Amino acid sequence: MSAVIGAAYDLLLCAGLLWVALQAMRIREAFGAVVVFMVFGLLMAVVWARLGSPDLALAEAIIGAGVTGALLLNACQAVQTDPGARRASARVEPSPGLPHGLIVAVCIAAGASLAALMALALEVPGPTADAARAGADAHPLGNPVTVVLLDFRAYDTLMEMVVLLAAFLGARVLIDQSELAPLHPPVPADPPMVAPLLAMATPVLVLTSLYLFWAGSHAPGGAFQAGALLGGLGVLYRLTGRLEPYDHTPIWLRTVLVVGLIVFSGVVLAAALWSPWPMRYPETGLYPLVLAIEFALLLSIAATLTALFSGTAGFRPHTGARS
Amino acid sequence: MNLVYALTAGLLFAIGLYGLLARSELIHRLLAANVMSSAVFLYLILIATAPAGDPDPVPQAMVLTGIVIAVSLTAFALALLRYFQALNARRALEDEADGDD
Amino acid sequence: MTEPAVLFAWCATLLIFVPLLAALAVYLVPGRRFGGALCLLVALGLFVPLVLASHALADAGALHFAFGGHTAPLGIELFADGLALAMLWLTNVLLLAVHCYTNSWLRQAPAFRATEFRALVLLLWSGLNGLFLSADLFNLYVMLEIVTLTAVPLVVFSRGPVALAAAMRYLLFALAGSIFYLLGVALIYAETGLLALRTLSPEALMGPAAVTALAVMTAGLAMKAALFPVHAWLPKAHAVAPSPASALLSALVAKAGAYLLVRLWLGPFATIDSAILLQGLAAVGVAGILYGSLQALRQSRLKGVVAYSTVAQLGYFLLLLPLASLVAWQGVIYHALTHGLAKTAMFLAAGNLIRQAGSDQLDRLAGADRFLGGSLMAIALAGVSLAGLPPTGGFIGKWWLVAASLEAGQWWWALSIGAGGLLAAGYVFRVLRHAMQEPSEPTPVPDHERVTPTMIWVPVALALASIGLGFTGDLLAPWLAIGAPFADTGGTP
Question: Alpha-carbon distance A167 to A169, whole Å?
Fold first, then answer.
């Protein structure tokens, strides 16, 4: 009986996913498409949980739906507030200019063949998987995903932080050239309830973030989910004016943005002291070292996401009384 | 049951491809690219969890990395969009100034 | 005491992490002079690991190592052979030249955001070195994204709607390219459960999933490399970017995609050797050579000519697929080296023309030979090498490719190479003809303040190096053959 309910649930979920994705592609108006896309992100998080990947469910819910959604809504809000922005939406020419019928035909053909191919190639021979499972079993860190992210394929994780930093640097240059008034300027006074709600949300989010960070070594969670959650708190503070826009990136913020990369790269190179191979952890002291790297990553991720959302060169704590 | 999800992944990729080819606005094409990435991520997780026993952690780690990269690309693309709006706003102001003469 | 593999491991790590850490330092410590000095120091210092790695490779052949000692299939491996070594050397030489040039160039551009520019260039450098060294399919995806997200912002440093439109288009092509590549990685993982290139056996990659993977990866990488017919983003982006960035984009970034294509087709997918397919791909390459050259002949701006020339020159990479011999392999690498040097020289010289003449419109170059002698000489010398006239480096690369075509009995590629050379000579001489014309109106007084001697001798030196490669063919050939996928059949070099 439960198998039938499960199957029906899966079918509904997949149908919903496809329908929502199609709507996100078809809705003309940007705001509507973005809202539908956020629903898509939430459905994906449910799919991950359903497929037994709680790490991903957490990441998708916080990063995929949460942060991406906030960024996209930011862009929509800007369209509504900036003069002149309404009259044209950013078109990327040339749109390939193919006849619509041809596009539909190509996509149907691609979809059908890919779906068939993917359905057929599901049984994976697993040299990598076997090696990773065996390696993770013998590893001092208990969560196999964390073991892969921070040891076996740590190089990928480090380089992904470079991608994040490059995105911020690129956005930073554009912000400087835009010379627009910042989004979310400081508000003269809080609407009622904001202060008590934030007072409640702050410890909850900080504690959850720290829990995810600490739990990541043996249970679902880790630096990325924790950092994104803390970044979410930064977004709240920016929205309510507790962090105010600032026209340059202060040194403390620059330091936090890169601290993850500095600590991680430092460990890669410091391996010369105890091993013939770069990025090799020492036999003893692996756990504190990984924890230090993860904490630095957490700070960098939170700061970068807040700064990207902020849409300004930097931000600083709101000082003085609200006038 | 994975079969249904695999079919979904293939179709999702095609839906994203449709958005990428048929729409011309940057923000819609960005959503389309995100849908396509999600389709690939879904497929990666399927091959991680398809066999019985513990899931394969490597694709899960790949998808986590991929999600962060997707956010980075989206954030930068949206900064481009904002610059576009700034240029438009400037042009609108200039047009107004011209109109006053 | 150190084995070659360990020595190589640390050299490779330094090549990737020193530019990365330098980027962080440039970002943290403000000040243009510090940034400029640090960039030069890094460029000079990295020749040490490069020389050591070259010697390790010369002693031991192609080398690989795994980060953390987690060898494949568990971890991520880096790998270097003659091809990777050549690209690393090219990257280092060009970055040194571009940093020298940028330091002078920035002095006249006080409003330019030098810190972010240098940081992004350093991250791009780290990403390129990492990409040329990587031997892991998924890690290559991450490196491709680093290259994308550092290269696209470089375009928008030139402000304004043209730069913005070019950057948006570039970003979308790059984004689509990465997704297709990633789909290919997922399909290969599904078929084989492997990511490391070394462990992927060609026999395991014959199923429908693997063939589809090869198709989507080829499409994705072609978008990244701007191979004809998915080149639409390149000419605009490369023409509008600030000149030092244009040089890097044309000479290195576009080649990264082509480099990966060669790695895949001659590596794990070498068993897919259907003659029709390979001939077809090379025909697409030739179409790119012809189309790019013809467009270059029609451009009204100097940087447009140089950018379309890149579309043309990238086509030569695809000729390697049907020829598949050691001589062709060496020829393509040699062509990549000379093209990198010549293209950087041309873009930097074009930057000087824009600075002094105020524009790179070809019809406003008349009389430019009077006051822009150095920059024009750089363009002329680089052009001679691009056209493949003897005794330049371009000639050697093309000559080896022609020899490989004739040896393989595929004379039609030799003809295409000849045609490509003639067309290149055409668009180079068209530029020079404009510059040598008598000006119809009095030449504007050049502003010598704006172009320092460094900005002239850097492109001249690069152009001379591109010609000088014409005399080092025999010397370099054995280095390029290290770890080549083809046995030495006693060809020309």
Answer: 6
Mutation target among C8, C10, C20, C156 for the A interface, most CBs of A within 10 A: C20
The third-level CATH classification (topology) of the domain covering B2-100 is Helix Hairpins (1.10.287)
Which residue matches tokens 């046995």?
A: C487
Judging contacts by C-beta atoms under 8 Å, the chain B residues touching residue C160 are 87
Report the percent of chain A where pLDDT is more than 90.
Answer: 46
Which of helix, strand or coil describes residue A91? strand
In this prediction, residue C442 has a pLDDT band, given cuts at 50, 70 and 90, of low
Helix (H, G, I), strand (E, B) or coil at A311: coil
For the beta carbon of residue A131, count every other beta carbon within 10 angstroms: 19
Contact C81, C15 (CB under 8 A): no
Task: Judge whether residue C493 has pLDDT over 50.
Answer: no
Domain ranges of chain B: 2-100
B contact residues 56-95, partner A, Cβ 8 Å cutoff: 56-58, 60-65, 67-76, 78-86, 88-93
Specify the DSSP element, H or E, that contains A76: helix A68-81
pLDDT in tens, C212-257: 999 999 999 999 999 988 898 999 999 999 999 999 999 999 999 9
CB within 8 Å: C123 and A162 = yes
- From A88-102, A245-259, B1-15, C116-130, the region with the lowest mean pLDDT: A88-102
Per domain, the residue ranges of chain A are 1-81, 143-323
Predicted pLDDT at C445: 58
Cα separation values, C249 from C143, C155, C214, C352, C463, Å: 15, 9, 25, 18, 17
Domain annotation covers residue C2: no
pLDDT per residue over C415-440, tens digit each?
999 999 999 999 999 998 888 887 77
ipTM: 0.94
Whether residue C369 is contained in a domain is answered as yes
Nearest-neighbour CA in chain C from B66: distance (Å): 8
Asked if the model's pLDDT at residue C481 lies above 80, the reply is yes
Query: With bands split at pLDDT 50, 70 and 90, how would you rate the model's confidence at C280?
Result: very high
Q: Give the number of domains in chain C.
A: 1
- Using the Cβ of C112 and the Cβ atoms of chain A, whether some distance falls under 8 Å is answered with no
Are C171 and B13 in contact (CB < 8 Å)? no
Tell me the C-alpha to C-alpha distance, in Å, between residue C470 and each of A309, C464, C474.
52, 10, 10
A244: β partners:
A316
* Res A322: pLDDT: 45
pLDDT in tens, A260-279: 999 999 999 999 999 999 99
Domain that holds residue C294: 275-493
Task: Decide if C238 is inside a domain.
Answer: no
C-alpha torsion sign, points C295, C301, C305, C306:
negative
Average pLDDT, integer, range C12-26: 97
C267: how many CB neighbours lie within 10 A of its CB?
16
Report the chain A residue with the minimal C-alpha distance to residue B78: A75
The answer to whether the Cβ–Cβ distance between A167 and C149 falls below 8 Å is yes
Contact residues, chain C to chain B, C-beta under 8 Å: 138, 142, 145, 148-149, 152-153, 156, 160-161, 164, 167-168, 171-172, 175-176, 179, 182-183, 186, 189-190, 195
Read off the pLDDT of residues C58-72 as tens digits, 9 standing for 90 and up.
Answer: 999 999 999 999 998
Strands A314-317 and C63-66: unpaired
In this structure, is residue C447 part of a structural domain?
yes
d(CA B38, nearest CA chain C) in Å: 10
